[in-house]
Every structure is written in C-alpha cells, then in structure tokens.
Amino acid sequence: MTTKPALKLTHEGALKVLSGAIAKAQEIGVPQNITVVDDGGNLLAFVRMDGAKFLSIETSKSKALSAASHRVPTGGMNPSMEIKLAIASGGRLTNAEGGLPIFIDSHCVGAIGVGSGTGAQDVEVARGGLAAIDARETAS
Amino acid sequence: MTTKPALKLTHEGALKVLSGAIAKAQEIGVPQNITVVDDGGNLLAFVRMDGAKFLSIETSKSKALSAASHRVPTGGMNPSMEIKLAIASGGRLTNAEGGLPIFIDSHCVGAIGVGSGTGAQDVEVARGGLAAIDARETAS
Amino acid sequence: MTTKPALKLTHEGALKVLSGAIAKAQEIGVPQNITVVDDGGNLLAFVRMDGAKFLSIETSKSKALSAASHRVPTGGMNPSMEIKLAIASGGRLTNAEGGLPIFIDSHCVGAIGVGSGTGAQDVEVARGGLAAIDARETAS
Amino acid sequence: MTTKPALKLTHEGALKVLSGAIAKAQEIGVPQNITVVDDGGNLLAFVRMDGAKFLSIETSKSKALSAASHRVPTGGMNPSMEIKLAIASGGRLTNAEGGLPIFIDSHCVGAIGVGSGTGAQDVEVARGGLAAIDARETAS
C-alpha cells in the first residue's frame, strides 16, 4: 500500500472552530488567544481576542502543536517528563492544559490551542471550538 | 506629556479584514496566507486558505510586521538597502510586496500581510482586507 | 466595533520611569537593569546602571514583557505552572519578581522590569519608576 | 604585562548620549530608536522615540554592536563583503549607516546605533549623541 486516504481541515472549517471558541470565551467572559493548526502542525487560523495576554499567543500555539503531534489533549503527560520533553522539543511540546486534537470521522485533522485563562477555562473554550464543527477530542 | 491617545484594532475588526481578504482571494482564484497584526506587531488574526503555500505563513507575517513598523506599504524600500536591513532586523523586515498598514482616522492601528501569490495578487488581496473596514493604506 | 480608544506611554514618560527607578536604586545602593516596554511588549527605554549584572539585561526584559502581557505584577503565578509556561512562551514569560504593569487612568500603557538585585529590591526599584509618573500597578 | 588600564562609559554618560541624540532627532524632526552599548556590546541605554519604527529597535542595536566591535562607523565596509559577513555573524554585523564608536581619550568605550530615519539622518542623530559627552567617532 503506497498511499492511504486522509482528511484535511479546510480554512472554512478552521474559521468555524475559531468562531465557536470565541463564542464560548465571550460566554464565560475570558478573552483568549485561539490557534488552529493542521495535522502537520502548520498554522491554519488564529485570533487574539481584545484583552487577551500577548505572551499567550505563543502558549496557545504550543498547546495546539502538542495536541496535533500527540493526538491527545494536553495536560495528561507524566509530570516527571514534561519539562525535559518540553526542552528537548525546542520548547514546542507543552503539557499545559488547553490543547485538544480535532478528530473527524476518526481522522486527526489538526488541533486547537487556547491560552490566556486558567487551564480549565482554556479547555472549555477549546471544546467550544470543536463543538462548532461536530468534532471530537478522541479518535472514537 | 506622559501619555498620548491612540486607537486599537479590535479582534472583530481584524476578523472582518480576514473576511474581506478571503473574498478577494477567492474572486481572483488565488489561495493566500493572510496575517493581521496590531500597531506593535503582535499577531491579531490569521488564516491560511486551502492550497496556500505553507512557507508563506512566515512571509505574510514579515510583510505585516514591516508595514506596521514603517507605516507604509512594503515594496518601496531602496533596493540597495533591503537585504542588509532585513538581516539587521533579525529577518523580520521585508521589502516584498503584499504588506499594507491599516489606517483608521489617521491612526495606524496595525497592518495586513498577504503571501502565496504574485506580489501584485498579494497587494490586491491585502486591499480587499482594508476595504472591508473602510480603512486606508496611507495616513491621509 | 472595529476599533477602541487606547492610551500610549510616550518616550518622555518612559524616560521619567527610568529616572525614578534609578533614583530608588541609588537610594538603596543596588545597581539595576531597568527595562520599560509598551503595552505590546516592544522596548521603549532601558538603562543598565554601573555595576549591574549583564545577564540581568534579559531577565529585566522578560519581567517587563510578562507584566505587560498579563497586566499583573510578576511573581504571583501558580508555582506548578511557571516553568511549563515559561518554556511554552519561548522563554519570554517569567514569574520572577520585579515586573510591574504601568496603569494610567485604568489603561495598561506598558510595564517596567527590574533585575540585578533580590526580588524585593527589584520590586522596590520598579515601584520607584511608577511613582515618577504617578502610575499604578493595578487597574484601579 | 598582565593587565592594562581601560575606561568604562557610565550609565550617566550613556544617558547623556541618549539625551544629545534625542535633542538632535527632535531638531531635525525624525523620531528615532537610539541604542548605546558598552565596549563589549552589552546594552547600556536605549530609547524609542514616539513614532519611531519598531523594527528599527533591532537595526539600531545591530548598528551599535557593529560600531563597537569594529571601532569604526558603520557604512564603510566593502559592499561585496557586507551580506556574507552579516550572515556569518548571526545577523549582528551590519554595514547600514547610523552606528558610531564612542572614543574618549583614545579609548573606545562603546558605541551608539541609530535607526528609523535615512542613513544620513541616523548618522546626524548619532553624532548629536557623541557631542553631548565630547566624544569622538575616531581614535584620534
């Protein structure tokens, strides 16, 4: 088997994820940085909401990258490993909560990373993004 | 005088700029990377359209940064200076066409950078972004 | 709403902050690195006093960036999060004491970061900077 | 001979250089980024004037570093060498005009780098900085 079928998130889909996440962030009153990457970790869509922390531009991206790479939500890594792996990955892998893979029909088509609130708020907003396109954060 | 009044582009405004640029890119049939930064160069909004070149993620950002910093469209720099200043700025300053400052009420509130087409196509799409919020690419 | 009104710290204001911080550093006999950034984290003014540690050039900048981004004094972050967020932000976010946001009329116009003394000395000198322009370290 | 006497620029001296450069920039109506480094290239003092280009924060620093390292004004390098040396130095060496070494009693005590105007304007403002402490841009 030389090739296998895949599924790609479109920019239309990525912008819907942003919209769903923005709506949830506004609902809970926490401005956020929201990053959507594709399955290869390349940036697809981003927004920094009014009042969100500008250093969390980068943390939201690290969370999205980590969730896309590992295909699981960030935050579940063994704490004794998280710092050494973060450094070994050039600072791109993070275990901070707020990154979710985006699964559609059991394909991981990318990930969302949210940063500027507490870990729980970031996760809630990320889930708002997934809900907007009926995606899941686990393969099945 | 310790402070002076200014104007900030909202995320709502930045997303309208993205929409206007996407519409123009679809009209001319050229998928693009579109970056919107604020007046200090921090990322506000981004989208990579289906089929756009992924290395142009970075060039669209450099164009936006350059237009925000210099408050003029990219492309007008003295050719004999452009490489040395690009290097001296850590690779962030570019003279490639496709970056436009965003002026509203004579305030530079940020910039748009577009990359993946020809220079002329990138400029056309950037102008589509500005038109969506009735912004100008010059102060007056 | 495409834009919203804001306030910018002038270079005259930033230099007054430096002067106030230098005066306090001399009063307590601790030479310091003092960084002032604007609300987007771009450098506005800096001085390294005679005898200050040169590696603290960078730490004073990280402190200023962190206080400007989060709009709270550095040092209050959850200790269990500080290292992972420092790495995820590309090393720019720090929880070391000595960074204070600069609030004027409830606008965060930037931040000061001080480094080369103890945490308490750094905070004291940073407060000397804010006092020079009648600024506050909290929004209200 | 194990040691030799040296001369260090104080922070008081560096701030006078900033003041002299600011005064000249205001006289010619061109807001500037002004960097002063010591003889080892470490940052001593900096100011970004209202309206100066933020990407020139970095170019003003590259100019100051280059002038401190080579102990001659920037701009005189063989054009056929300037790009390859800029790259080989990690982007820190620049031949763009606006960097001047600071000589006092034939000691190079540091350098000033100015960026945001034309090359000629940058040099004029840098000279305003040197004049404020009766320094020279050549050893004798």
Automatic annotation (TrEMBL), chains A, B, C, D:
Gene3D superfamilies associated with the record: Haem-degrading domain (3.30.450.150)
Pfam families: HbpS-like
Superkingdom of origin organism: Bacteria
InterPro entries, per database record: GlcG_carb_metab_protein, PduO/GlcC-like, PduO/GlcC-like_sf
PANTHER family (UniProt xref): PROTEIN GLCG, SLR1406 PROTEIN
Listed name of the protein: Glcg protein
